[in-house]
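Weekly structure sync, notes
Attendees: PL, DS, HV (note-taker this week)

Item 1: Permease
DS walked through the input record. Source organism listed as Blautia caecimuris. Sequence as pasted into the shared doc:
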Amino acid sequence: MEKVLTLQATIFLLVAVGFMLKRIGLIGPQGQKNLNDLVIYVILPCNILHAFMNSPVEGRLLYYLEVLLISVGIQIFCVFYGRLIFRKEPEGKNKCLRYGTICSNAGFLGNPVAEGIYGAEGLVLASIYLIPQRIMMWTSGLAVFSGTTDRKETVRKVLTHPCIIMSELGILLMFTGWKLPAPVTDAVDYIGNCNTAFSMMAVGMILADINVKDFWDRTVAKFTFHRLVVIPAVVYGVCSFLPLDKNAFGICVLLAAMPAGATTSILAEKYGVDSPFATKMVIFSTLLSLPTICLWSMVL
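Item 1 (cont.): predicted structure, written out as tokens:
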């Protein structure tokens, strides 16, 4: 729990840095746009490749495969669940809500929480669990924001996106055991390690444009309840009937209980889709995830 508290405090400090940079005028609208592009096209792809390169598969392949299949099922469920629950929302909010339902912040919060509760094995299981989410984030998730009705064009944009290219390369490296040259690996690691800082500062910059009086939003509260309570409860119920190892069971439930990912705000800003609303989703769900993660940890 100490690790969870530390992570939450780190997130909000980074958000505060971005908030202040925007408020004091050190970074203007063009600089903010450039930072978003830097995160999406350079830092995030390197972070994804780094994650795949550090996810071992040797040994308990069947054990990992169980977690992978459950994660695939959860992602498919979230795609349809988001469409159903938020179908009556306005188009801009609908896109943010659907993306936030598909893509959580498990990549940042999930790994250290899994390691803190389940040790090294938990970290490996979390890395395996996150493979489908990383793929969905830049396929179905990206398609939510792209807004094009041309399926071929959507597929083309998604498959040529740097994050998807890095996901494909990462999967190849992970399962073949091939290694990139040391200088390339180090460069990817250094850039990828900037992801948390730059992503959360980008969220803070968007937050700086939101009127404090408008921060409370019933729709955001509804999303937070579904993201942090309903979805993990469904996963808990389904996994209870499966012959899963206790650690695998816990990892699947915990990572399903993570808040909205920072990319919700970043992509909303990139595609001009109600980024203030997306930022409220990220901040509000992250804030409330502190007690809910603690509660799910005790239940498990």
